[in-house]
Here is the input.
Amino acid sequence: MKKSSSIKTRITIWYTTLMFVLIVVVLALVGGLSYQLSKDSIEKNVILGVTQVAEKLSKRQPDVFEIVESQEEYKNVSIYDPEGKYIAGKYLYDAENIPFEEGVPRKETIDGKEYIIYDARMPGPPGMRGGLWIRGMESVNSSMILGRSAIIIVLVLIPLILILTAFGGYYITKKAFRPVNSIIKTANDISAQKDITRRIEIAPDAKEDELNQLSVTLNRMLDKIENLIKQEKQFTSDASHELRTPISVILAQGEYLLEIAQDDKERELAQSIVDKANQVSKLVSRLLLLARIDQNRQKFNKEKVDISVLADIAVDSMKELAAQKNITLSANVPDDTFAEADESLLLSAITNLISNGIKYGKESGYVSVSAVNTGEYTEITVKDNGIGIDKAHIDKIWDRFYRIDDVRNDEYGSNGLGLSMVKSIVELHGGTISAKSKVGEGTVFTIRLNN
Ligand code: ADP
Here is the structure.
């Protein structure tokens, strides 16, 4: 399965991780550098203390031991006898055990603590034989101070910075991507509701960025498409109007020819004219009805309609057609099943569904009409046990001029407008229509009208 993760989330994760890595690298660099600096300054301090005490001793100053003991600036200096025994100054347990090494500053670890040590050997004060060791020693504890602040930074500041980065960044990207959401929403609305008049919302304070330009361009494109569709519908409507009169004339004259036909050949020709003229006349009246509904010009008389009566009328009008295929027609609607509808439009929708049931029904099959009123809505069902509709076509049968099998349907004079007309009628009522089908078993059409 494809993982769903929005661009917003991916961008946020990316720069928050980057920020984290950056902070860690900077902290490591700063930590390392300040450790080195503090180590250097401690080393300098230690050497200075030792050198000063050594100088005093070389000048044979008598009170050196007291000075080392008492003065703050020599707090890191201690003095040992030639065997390494402590005499004066700062006493550090275990420091005696570290071997003396003259003139080399170095790092030693005692009890897990790091120390900088510097030793110098000098002649002792007057009266002392064998010379003395002067040891400067200081712990690298300044780096510990940095260590503590680093822990605070790592535990408190970094999460805080990361949270701020993530939330701030997410908010900004979300705002920047708002036009994309609006584009997606509009595209979905247009495809779901088939409403081409919808436009992408552009906030008045929107920034003039690429996404904003995209929204403006798409809106312009939608204007163009809407205009084209309008023009196409207008053309269909105008053309149908223009065709209406000549077709009526052809039909009337064809019927006249049929009446006065002298022989079978003439009768056959006249009949063919009448049949084709009837087909075109049906097509034109469907197109005109669709155009009227599209342009909100269709007269619509909503009234309380008795569906049981309507179903009987529809079934009666189709009896002849059904008989040609020995198809049983039945209406099973309980009395007093009412719906709020335009009687003639709803009758034409039901008749159309029955006619399809017969057209695509099997020899000696059945087509039945039933209905229920649940109180909330009225459901009218037209069911057949005909050839059925393949899954690949079921969503497209509502499209204008869509026919599954051109050759097969031609023998019935089909034009692919029946179901789109039925759908338009149902939607004009504010209702819905759906189809369920199994190839070889049959089809069920269900009209639902809200009460
Ligand atoms: P048509 O005028 O071709 O019947 P429709 O819009 O009424 O046009 O139907 C569209 C297509 O859906 C038809 O060509 C047909 O293939 C299929 N169809 C419609 N009703 C049925 C049905 N009851 N059983 C099987 N196929 C059907």
Notes: Residues 241-294 form one domain.
